[in-house]
């Protein structure tokens, strides 16, 4: 009888300990999730569009370690991913542009060490579509792509940047600093 009471007491104690551990794990997971969710909040908002960048660098693109590569290698380089969401009740036209990051150039004091734009390739990829490979110097007003987004729709893009093969010496001191801009086109 005494052994049964001790066994039952141990079982209750173990159940309470396991419950507290599970509760602690659940609360910790919730706070960790919210911390990282808040860090990936909306980075840009217009009257109809929300743009969220998913990397720590947000909308900033930097090429500092120059390694000219083939397109197949460039397509596996560092990705810059962002999501465009239409929160309006009408379709919205948008464009994705590349602009020079003069602030970062001043900070790095690398104005005279800029990679020529005509040897920088970029790929822009939208889910369920083929990669578009473009040359930065050939973009019209820096526009990489344009599109139409329906009400409530979300579109995710991935961009990658690399230097054309056989153009520069690997390890060159040249830099590129750019910013990915998503703009609502007003008609």
Q: What does the overall shape look like?
A: elongated
Number of domains: 2
CATH topology of the largest domain: Jelly Rolls
Mean pLDDT: 87
Number of helices: 3
**How do the helices and strands follow one another from N- to C-terminus?**
HEEEEHEEHEEEEE
| Amount of beta strand | 35-45%
Q: Which value, in Å, is the CA radius of gyration?
A: 25 Å
User: How far apart lie the N and C ends?
Assistant: 85 Å
Largest sheet: 7 strands, mixed
Q: What would CATH call the architecture of the largest domain? A: Sandwich
**Helical content band:** 25-40%
Could you give a quick summary of the protein structure above?
The chain has 187 residues and is of the alpha+beta class. The chain has helices at 2-39, 71-74, 102-108; strands at residues 44-45, 49-53, 60-63, 68-69, 79-86, 92-100, 120-126, 132-135, 143-149, 154-164, 176-185.
Task: Please explain how this structure is put together.
The chain has 187 residues and is an alpha+beta fold. The protein has two domains: 1-39; 44-185, Jelly Rolls, CATH 2.60.120. Helices cover 26% and strands 37% of the residues. It contains three helices and eleven strands, in the order H-E-E-E-E-H-E-E-H-E-E-E-E-E. The protein has helices at 2-39, 71-74, 102-108; strands at residues 44-45, 49-53, 60-63, 68-69, 79-86, 92-100, 120-126, 132-135, 143-149, 154-164, 176-185. Strands 1, 2, 4, 5, 7, 8 and 10 form a seven-stranded mixed β-sheet that branches. The longest helix has 38 residues, at 2-39. The radius of gyration is 25 Å and the shape is elongated. It starts with a helix and ends with a strand. The relative contact order is 0.22.
